[in-house]
Design brief:
There is one protein chain. Helices cover 70% and strands 1% of the residues. The chain is mainly alpha-helical. The protein has two domains: 85-276, Up-down Bundle (Growth Hormone, Chain: A); 319-526, Up-down Bundle (Growth Hormone, Chain: A), CATH 1.20.1250.20. Residues 296-305 have a biased composition (Pro residues). It holds the Pfam family MFS_1.
Length: 526
């Protein structure tokens, strides 16, 4: 052996634990044992492939974990930006993401069970009965929720948490009902819709109380909307994976998400419960007072308006008078945008229930009903995200005119679907519904921020959200009672949407000189 020979000595080669030199020409593979050398070549290749697969799996897991941590950090920075972490708005934004995630998982589970059951088309009457029995009382009682919660400490946090807890319970009931073919399937499903609308009302009143300094309602609600889109994507992915094992497992995923949301709601800042300095809108409106005078007294000045701090107790007209005074207290641009936004809510309720049955009764070509509704859902989601971006871009236009344009777009889309029903028009309806609903709501929020005094802003949000839910019920009722004919259904929906547009246009004339909008600054919510 020469002095420059790098081949291992027999002693070094046989010594245990001593590795061969890196440059050794015939160094044995450390991973290759004597038993491996005696195995057939096919088994060695299989073992090698298994090792490669194991290493690839570990690398993929590390990459997924690293990507997840990066996405979580970015999401945390997004929700806590602009002082939202200090004010508590970030917690409410994250709660909205959890709510949307639970919604997505629940709707995926119901998509193949509630709406695509062969007997669903014949069960429309039963669905209509449950819709009336659950939604109509809810809309009548909802105006009393705000004043009742203001009376008790921790009211709104526990109210928001209760709506999520109810949805968690109903998701578990739905899972059992699907497995056992129980009659509680429809009541539990519609009860979830009721709880969802109650959550929207209670949450809307909490947003103004958590706004950081320098943040408008448009930015806050746009951020919450984007967080909701993210939550819906994540919840849809989890629900879709669980759906492979059955619809009941997707509902159990929704149950877990709503339980997490309940905890998040209870952990909201205490400022959510504080109503200090807030009034009902009707308390800011002057009550006409006619001074008493005898016939011999000289003529007096016209009746004056004397502000009052008493709510409905001073109004001889009772509840109707209080409602009229509440409407009078809201500036006409806000009412204008409220009716425009109501048109988009009417379309939302109609599309949700009408298309669920129409896709089954009148399939488009050879497409399965599930495919049609999946395309519609994707179009609505894309529209919602686009509406959030568009709402922050349109800053040089009057918000009430932008909302009116969005409402007119819903009328045009409904007419198009009535004239030529097909996959293209279904996509158009979904996109228009998503964009118009998000854009008009952002415009309405900006007008409330600009036109309504701060002390009544929270009450205006709670009341307006109730009005919007009533219009959602109207749209859902139309989707249930109308014949499953796209020409009749979408045609009637277009008439209802046009009625909302007419009501929006009438607000300025009805207002007269009683309210004057504040000087527009050319920016939404500024």
């Amino acid at each position: 052996m020469g002095p420059y020979d790098r081949s291992p000595t027999p002693e070094a080669a046989e010594a245990p634990g001593v590795a061969a030199a890196p440059g050794a020409p015939h160094a044995p593979d450390p991973a290759t044992t004597a038993s491996d050398r005696t195995r057939p070549p096919g088994r060695r290749r299989l073992r090698s492939a298994g090792g490669h697969l194991h290493r690839a799996t570990r690398g993929g897991a590390r990459l997924t974990a690293r990507s997840g941590r990066y996405a979580a950090a970015k999401y945390h920075a997004y929700t806590h930006s602009g002082g939202a972490g200090e004010s508590g708005l970030a917690r409410l934004t994250e709660l909205q993401a959890s709510h949307s995630a639970g919604d997505a998982a629940m709707m995926l589970a119901l998509a193949g069970t509630l709406f695509f059951d062969p007997q669903t088309a014949q069960a429309r009457g039963q669905v209509a009965i449950f819709l009336l029995l659950t939604m109509v009382p809810f809309t009548l009682v909802a105006p009393l929720v705000g004043p009742l919660l203001d009376r008790f400490g921790h009211g709104r946090r526990w109210a928001i948490g209760s709506t999520l807890a109810v949805r968690a319970f109903l998701c578990w009931v739905l899972g059992e009902a699907i497995n056992n073919d129980s009659a509680w399937l429809y009541p539990a499903a519609l009860g979830c819709l009721v709880a969802s609308k109650a959550y929207t009302i209670t949450r809307s009143a909490a947003v103004p109380r958590l706004l950081p300094a320098g943040t408008t309602l448009v930015r806050a609600n746009s951020k919450a909307s984007m967080a909701g889109v993210i939550g819906a994507v994540v919840g849809g992915a989890m629900g879709g994976a669980a759906l492979l094992a059955g619809p009941s497992w997707a509902l159990r995923v929704a149950f877990v998400v709503f339980v997490v949301g309940t905890i998040q709601a209870i952990r909201l800042p205490a400022r959510v419960d504080s109503a200090a300095g807030e009034l009902d809108p009707e308390q800011t409106v002057a009550i006409p007072v006619q001074p008493t005078a005898s016939p011999t007294d000289p003529p007096t000045d016209p009746p004056t308006d004397t502000p009052t701090a008493e709510p409905a107790s001073t109004d001889a007209a009772g509840l109707v008078g209080r409602l009229r005074r509440r409407v009078r207290a809201i500036p006409w641009p806000v009412m204008h945008a409220l009716w425009s936004t109501g048109a988009t809510r009417l379309l939302t309720g109609f599309v949700l229930l009408f298309m669920a049955f129409l896709a089954k009764e009148h399939p488009i070509g050879d497409l399965h009903a599930g495919v049609v509704l999946a395309v519609l859902a994707v179009a609505i989601g894309v529209g919602n995200a686009s509406g959030s971006v568009l709402g922050n871009t349109l800053k040089d236009f009057h918000p009430h005119l932008v909302a009116l344009t969005a409402a007119l777009a819903t009328v045009a889309a409904s007419v198009a679907a009535a004239v030529s029903y097909g996959l293209v028009t279904v996509i158009v309806v979904g996109l228009v519904q998503g964009v118009s609903a998000q854009l008009s709501k952002l415009c309405f929020d900006s007008l409330v921020q600009r036109e309504v005094p701060e002390r009544v802003r929270t009450s205006v949000f709670a009341w307006s959200e109730t009005v919007l839910q009533v219009l959602w019920v109207v749209g859902g009722t139309l989707g249930i009672v109308l014949p499953l004919d796209p020409r009749i259904g979408f045609g009637a929906c277009a008439v209802g949407l046009l009625g909302c547009v007419v009501m929006a246009l009438r607000q300025r004339r009805l207002a007269g000189p009683r309210t004057a909008p504040r000087r527009a600054t050319g920016r939404m919510g500024r």
